[in-house]
């Protein structure tokens, strides 16, 4: 048996979670077009008869402005030690900048690999400039890929598999993720909320399961201000209804999802609240 851990790190929104989902062949981590979607370390497992790759998805590294930001940055940085391969993920459509360099400075680059993602959306001169720029990182390998179209992905997975040392089966072969079910349901609700909210509201939202009597699950949506509560509920409760419908569609049939919205003033700036919400 060969097995090991592969951590993906990088700035927010570069596509780390989309990549982990694509490599696992299943959705294990939520995705959105807003930066700072991932807040936990999420493991996705890809098992074959004699190999097990454990992908570690991490929150995007950024300049923290709140207690939540500091917490999730620490989670990401903690995830690069004690793993077999570290992948620095770069967005091919955004100039290689100080944020990427800051992340690279926290990694052992000669032993890391660079994944240049979103090549489907980059113009060829943009991609060339990006590959030239990342070359200065002196990484072990470079992989231009698209998590969305799958371009370059088989080569990446084959390379990572070849890097695996001999090791145990870390998870039972049918495991796809280390996320507790309750958190997964809460995350699916938050994902739908991220899709319909704008401006600062996505950052103000947290979700957690407060009652689990399967198939009846109650999820609390926490916002930071009264005005945000109205936006999440929508006129006549329509926004909340739609969010519930879309989240439920990704859960086993028959689940009864109850959504409630609560205000916890400025929770994102309060370390004790951030911790109590499980971040
Ligand atoms: N065109 C294109 N879009 C992509 C690709 N990979 C990811 N995206 C999009 O990029 C956005 C961010 O994707 P995520 O996977 O949430 O990014 P992330 O790096 O996990 O972001 P954080 O969790 O905030 O750090 C989403 O809108 C994805 O659909 C890709 O290969 N091509
Ligand atoms: Mg993510």
Largest sheet: 6 strands, mixed
Q: Give the overall shape, derived from the CA principal axes.
A: globular
Distance between the termini: 34 Å
Task: Name every ligand kind in the structure.
Answer: guanosine-5'-triphosphate, magnesium ion
Outline the structure in words.
The protein is of the alpha/beta class. The protein has two domains: 2-163, Rossmann fold (3-Layer(aba) Sandwich), CATH 3.40.50.300; 181-276, K homology (KH) domain (GMP Synthetase, Chain A, domain 3, 2-Layer Sandwich), CATH 3.30.300. Helix content is 35%, strand content 22%. A six-stranded mixed sheet has the order 2-3-1-4-5-6, with helices on both faces. It has a three-stranded mixed sheet with strand order 7-8-9. Helix 6 (181-196) packs across helix 9. The longest helix is centred in the last third of the chain and has 16 residues, at 181-196. The two termini are 34 Å apart. Residues 16-17, 29, 37-38, 57 line the site of magnesium ion.
Notable features of this structure?
279 residues, alpha/beta, GMP Synthetase, Chain A, domain 3, 2 domains, 6-stranded mixed sheet, 3-stranded mixed sheet, 10 helices, 9 strands, 35% helix, binds guanosine-5'-triphosphate, binds magnesium ion
Summarize the structure.
It is built from ten helices and nine strands.
Layout of helices and strands:
Layout: E1 2-10, H1 16-24, E2 42-47, E3 51-57, H2 67-78, E4 85-91, H3 98-105, E5 113-117, H4 124-135, E6 141-144, H5 153-163, H6 181-196, H7 201-204, E7 206-213, E8 216-223, H8 226-233, H9 238-248, E9 256-263, H10 271-276
Helix pairs in contact: 6-9
This protein binds guanosine-5'-triphosphate and magnesium ion (MG).
Guanosine-5'-triphosphate binds next to α1.
């Amino acid at each position: 048996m060969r097995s090991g851990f592969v951590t993906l790190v990088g700035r927010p929104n570069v596509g780390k979670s989309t990549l982990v989902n694509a490599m696992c062949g299943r959705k294990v981590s939520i995705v959105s077009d807003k930066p700072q979607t991932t807040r936990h370390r999420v493991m996705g497992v890809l098992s074959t008869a004699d190999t097990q790759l454990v992908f570690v998805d991490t929150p995007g590294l950024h300049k923290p402005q709140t207690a939540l930001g500091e917490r999730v940055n620490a989670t990401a940085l903690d995830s690069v030690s004690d793993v077999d391969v570290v992948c620095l993920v770069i967005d091919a459509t955004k100039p290689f900048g100080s944020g990427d360099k800051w992340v690279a400075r926290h990694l052992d680059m000669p032993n890391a690999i660079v994944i240049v993602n979103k090549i489907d959306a980059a113009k060829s001169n943009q991609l060339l400039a990006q590959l030239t720029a990342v070359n200065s990182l002196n990484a072990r390998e470079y992989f231009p890929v698209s998590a969305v179209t799958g371009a370059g992905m088989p080569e990446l997975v084959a390379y990572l598999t070849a890097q695996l040392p001999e090791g145990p089966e870390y998870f039972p072969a049918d495991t796809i993720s280390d996320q507790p079910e309750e958190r997964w349901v809460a995350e699916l609700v938050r994902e739908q909320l991220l899709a319909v909210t704008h401006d600062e509201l996505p950052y103000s939202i947290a979700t957690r399961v407060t009652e689990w009597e399967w198939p009846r699950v109650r999820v609390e949506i926490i916002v930071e201000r009264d005005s945000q509560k109205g936006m999440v509920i929508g006129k006549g409760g329509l926004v909340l209804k739609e969010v519930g419908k879309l989240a439920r569609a990704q859960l086993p049939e028959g689940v009864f999802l109850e959504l409630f919205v609560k205000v916890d003033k400025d929770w994102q700036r309060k370390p004790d609240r951030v911790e109590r919400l499980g971040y």
